[in-house]
Design a protein that fits this description.
- The structure holds two protein chains of two kinds.
- Helix content of chain A is 56%, strand content 13%.
- By secondary structure, chain A is an alpha/beta fold.
- In chain A, the strands form three sheets. In chain A, strands 5-1-6-13-7 form a five-stranded mixed sheet.
- The radius of gyration of chain A is 28 Å and the shape is elongated.
- In chain A, 41% of the residues are buried.
- Chain B is of the alpha/beta class.
- In chain B, strands 6-7-8-3-9-10 form a six-stranded mixed sheet, sandwiched between helices.
- In chain B, helix 6 links the parallel strand 7 and strand 8.
- In chain B, helix 3 crosses helix 4.
- The longest helix of chain B is centred in the C-terminal third of the chain and has 16 residues.
- The chains are: A alpha/beta, B alpha/beta.
- Chains A and B meet through helix 16, helix 17 and helix 20 of A and helix 2 and helix 3 of B.
- Bound molecules: adenosine-5'-triphosphate and magnesium ion (MG).
- Magnesium ion binds next to helix 1 of chain B.
Amino acid sequence: MTPVMAWFRRPHATCVMVGILAAMLAGAGTARADTPPPLPGFIHDGALTVCTNPTLPPMTFVNGTDVKAVDGIDMDIARTLAAYWHVKLTVTTMDFTGLFPSLAAGRCGLVASGIIRLPQRERNFDAVAYQDTALVIVARAGTHPLGGMAELSGRKVAVQAGTSYSARMARENEALAAAGHAPMIITAYPTEEQVVQQVLLGRAFALASQDVELAYRREQLHGRVRVIFTPPYPEYRHFALYIRKDAHDRALLEQAVATLRDNGQMAAIAQKWAITPDTTQALGATAPAFHWGTFFGALTSAAFMRGAFITLAVAVLSHLTAIAISLPMALVLNGRDCVLKTGLTAYVALFRGAPTLLQLLFIWNALPQFLPFFREAWFTPFLATWLSLSINESAYQVEINRAALLAVDPAQAVAGHALGLSRGQVYRHVIFPQALRIALPPTINAFISLLKTTSLASVISVQELLAVTQIQVARTFEFTEYYAAALVYYLAMVFFFLLVQKRVERRFSWADQYRAGTHAS
Amino acid sequence: MHPEPGAVLSIRNLSKLYKDFTALDRISLDVRRGEKVVVLGPSGSGKSTLIRCLNRIEPHDSGSLHINGQTITARTDLIRLRALVGLVFQNYNLFPHLNVLDNCALAPRLVRKMPRAQAEALAMRFLQQVNIAGQARKYPIQLSGGQQQRVAIARALCMQPEIMLFDEPTAALDPEAVSGVATIMNDLAAQGITILCVTHEMRFARHIADRIVFMDQGRIMEITPPGQFFTNPQTRRAQDFLNQMIA
Ligand SMILES: Nc1ncnc2c1ncn2[C@@H]1O[C@H](COP(=O)(O)OP(=O)(O)OP(=O)(O)O)[C@@H](O)[C@H]1O
Ligand SMILES: [Mg+2]
């Protein structure tokens, strides 16, 4: 039995509720009676800004279909802390790998996301422990418990990317190698539920996770997994809140956590989220089936519609911006040599060469380090995505534009000039309409590709369709149903734009000898 | 040197260079109002270049060009010049994305700022004149070569120019269509429009020309009335050219 399990042992619904109420009243009472505690430096403008990656139940996760409503132990603690300091709470959700860069960039004052307290992290950030835990090795129900980590030699072990487990497992591998054993084969997945899924599918023998999460997951998993080993890692004992390095702030945060622990609020939160006490006990497994109700529920959910809308908005806005900036760029690139042309050639090479994901991460995480301007609140993940996808797409669109403009017979421009049309009129009335027909199919193609590229934005916390899907999967473990619903949305959007393309192409029937007549009359 | 009085078009020692290649070599020519001048000459002799210099689609390098008594320079208002001098291209260059009517109405609307209805009425008038009004709603791709040629003529006429330049208007036409174009040109000349036409069609040239200009290697070799040119050319080069054309 791990320390947390011991802590989770006692829950009884009414008892928990009473406990929370009592704790909150006590907390509020003390706060009102005394002068408010001094505010740490990471609280700005009367708001505590907390970053979290809500895919780690019960620490932090979306406990319903509203993806904006983050729930869990971490959120309860954040709420309690905000109440303690008498400030407003702002929660920003993002990909796990974005948490520490965002903290460093000043986008959040505090990271509360079920993160282990580790010495290497404390080199760059200050950590305040708030909850005990233990690292556990988990395998499918029915697997024999291990006698030690050496028994994992040569086996596949899944871990969540960006967490400290993969580093810890690598160290374990060094020990295995030193002892002359084959190493574990470690595979990393971006979200915790995918890690678990690898074990359920039999692709990985075991996974490394925390007992707290497993305790919560067990109900969703219907006892399909069990803890097979708890390695004796003393450093994996605490979840911590992270802040930027500041001894004073750290002392204030420690004091706050100590106060909450002393007045029982921490214990109440822990009890609220405890599910059942024993992870090692396997329950009756249920056969996996496709739940049509979940599928249709997702299809018609506000969360999915909102996600699809954001996906569409990001794609349409980015592509329109890309078209607007790539048109003058194409004219310059098709024109005579000049400094501007050399510059634009470099721009195109750079943004076509660099992976889109890298550009997105750079603009969101690295740019604010050079330009504090981008640290301000108005620079939202949505704007960052819009900016980086516009730039990225313009580098592709400019080539489409260039080719289309070059494909128009130069004699057309001469004919326009010979009729007395100005340069602008020639472009507007003679060249562009003809270039548009040539550019349209590749442009729609590029747009459809962009529509799907928007899913990258989930990495910087944009709640687009795929992010919504993953959050729902993390909550329910129903992979197939939610993936299918997302697929339906993507396909519907793509088919809609293919239909638009057909429609618009009909307007270009002048290029088709056999159809021109039908449109002309 | 001064433009000849009464000449609508006066060319004096006009030269055009492409890098160090002399495409036009000191061309001099005067054309009277309502005159039909046909330019003949072997391929590459500079006929198209000459025509393109006359409405400054190609700027000339030296010499002078006077139209309606006005000297054409880099500072000339090109839009007014091109309203005065219409050009019909060898391969028509109709706008494929516009139907016949819009092809003709576009320049009056944009350049002359005519309301659409008025520009279309004007276009219909000239389409009727070249006998193609029935195809007004068709797109260029749906027309035969001869029909496209007539649309190209109507499109140039819509700007109501005083001088019309034709670059091989008969190149892709059957004999019947050729005689149609000849009729149109005679009509235009009768209305006082001056015509300068490049062609390789000898019978057509003889039929419409008031004067023949024979060019070779960027130079005018001789300027003669058609009767004389076809029976008794003055230069050896013209003789050879005619022999080749007949053979
Ligand atoms: N843009 C250009 N650059 C360089 N040389 C050119 C250019 N345009 C024409 N030339 C050259 O100028 C000369 C005259 O060309 P032009 O087109 O005027 O001949 P043409 O008499 O109209 O011939 P054709 O009967 O074959 O149409 C040719 O030798 C041609 O190669
Ligand atoms: Mg020519």
